[in-house]
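Quick review question:
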């Protein structure tokens, strides 16, 4: 029985397929209506058609002149690194030693963890991100703090305790057994509690012993509907280090594969220095790539190869990777992804960038039908995007002659200011302050 029916009018866009592979990839209504009932999408389409179906007393929120799109999904981000974003370093490994590990040490303090979690979620919602795959720290209390904060806001979030038992400071080191034990306890406490989902999270192969990776793989088998998240092939020096640590593995990603960690709901951050067999294996196992352009450019790690990933059929999504990434905004992430694609000799249309940040991410996470578009029954996580948010956006979008030009301007010129409002499960959780 419907107890809370609301409707939202505006230009409406959501995706049905990947624009790179389908001519019928999206649903666009210049004057659209989104109908929400009890936190889920009831219908989405033309205003003229749908508004006559509404009961007489239905509240219609008028966002005419703005876009209604599904909330952005960030598939790789570190909430503990919020305070160290934009920290200078010569590369990934020295950046970890100088900034990341000392910053993460502070999350032993539950109060500090809770404070950062609140700030982090504020930033996500301000930028229109309604779901994220989040790395916590090695401390179980960092996971509790994060999920407590997201639960209070009613958000669909995925997170996990980092597991690392070597090649890191003693103050951040667990053991293979304690890491697995803590992870299982957290799975049982949080996975599928409300809108929370758990991710088994070995930081990356160099900071886990073979025993820890074995136990992580066993947990992945024992809890097949959990997620897996880690890093792979981000940086050439890192790849060389992995070859030294795991001389019997065919490749970096083969390390994870050998421990049963390539499967649906496995999300691999970066995926820059892969070979063709690696990409083929990702496609075979439905493991997904989280593309992190602002982080990869900031740390000089390399350029993601969209063309080869597409040729192999790899599941793709976009991610900010804060704090290696330099913005919480998925619009800014699209901006850099476009440039990365150009530098690798391919072209990334705006339609596809918005797909990768919404339905593409949901598909990568095996959550299509739950989040990512406006199909009936999906959770009503959506954002209101303002093409007139800045003088430059207003001037450029006034001259647009197609949907592609409108979206391209938003991706290349937009940021958090373009997000007028953010809704989670049909409830407004952010509204842009105006002066």
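Suggested answer, residue by residue:
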């Amino acid at each position: 029985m419907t107890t809370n029916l609301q409707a939202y009018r505006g230009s409406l866009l959501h995706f049905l397929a990947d624009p790179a592979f389908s001519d019928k990839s999206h649903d666009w209504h210049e004057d659209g209506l989104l109908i929400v009932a009890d936190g889920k999408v009831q219908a989405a389409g033309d205003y003229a058609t749908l508004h006559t179906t509404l009961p007489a007393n239905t509240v219609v929120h008028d966002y005419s002149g703005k876009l209604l799109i599904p909330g952005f999904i960030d598939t790789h981000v570190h909430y503990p690194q919020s305070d160290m974003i934009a920290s200078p370093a010569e590369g990934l490994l020295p950046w970890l030693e100088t900034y990341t590990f000392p910053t993460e040490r502070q999350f032993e303090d539950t109060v500090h963890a809770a404070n950062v979690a609140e700030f982090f979620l504020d930033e996500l919602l301000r930028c229109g991100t309604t779901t994220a795959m989040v790395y916590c720290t090695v401390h179980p209390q960092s996971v509790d703090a994060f999920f407590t904060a997201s639960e209070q806001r009613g958000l669909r979030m995925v997170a996990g305790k980092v597991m690392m038992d070597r090649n890191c400071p003693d103050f951040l080191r667990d053991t293979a057994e304690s890491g697995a034990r803590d992870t299982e306890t957290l799975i049982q406490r949080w996975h599928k509690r409300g809108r929370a989902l758990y991710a088994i999270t070995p930081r990356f192969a160099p900071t886990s012993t073979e025993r820890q990776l074995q136990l992580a793989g066993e947990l992945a088998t024992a809890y097949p509907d959990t997620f897996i998240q880690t890093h792979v092939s981000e940086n050439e020096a890192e790849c060389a280090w992995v070859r030294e640590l795991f001389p019997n593995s065919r490749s970096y990603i083969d390390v994870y594969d050998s421990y049963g960690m390539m499967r649906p709901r496995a999300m691999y951050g970066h995926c820059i220095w892969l070979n063709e067999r690696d990409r083929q294996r990702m496609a075979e196992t439905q493991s997904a790539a989280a593309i992190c352009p602002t982080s990869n450019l900031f740390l000089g790690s390399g350029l993601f190869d969209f063309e080869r990933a597409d040729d192999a059929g790899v599941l793709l999504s976009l991610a900010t990777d804060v704090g290696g990434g330099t913005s919480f905004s998925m619009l800014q992430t699209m901006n850099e992804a476009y440039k990365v694609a150009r530098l690798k000799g391919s072209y990334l249309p705006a339609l596809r960038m918005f797909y990768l940040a919404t339905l593409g991410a949901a598909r990568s996470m095996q959550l299509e039908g739950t989040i990512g578009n406006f199909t009936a029954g999906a959770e009503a996580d959506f954002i209101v995007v303002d093409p007139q948010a800045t003088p430059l956006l207003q001037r450029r979008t006034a001259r647009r002659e197609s949907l592609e030009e409108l979206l391209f301007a938003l991706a290349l010129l937009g940021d958090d200011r373009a997000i007028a409002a953010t809704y989670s499960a049909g409830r407004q959780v952010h509204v842009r302050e105006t002066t």
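Why it works: The two ends are 41 Å apart (CA to CA). The longest helix spans residues 110-126.
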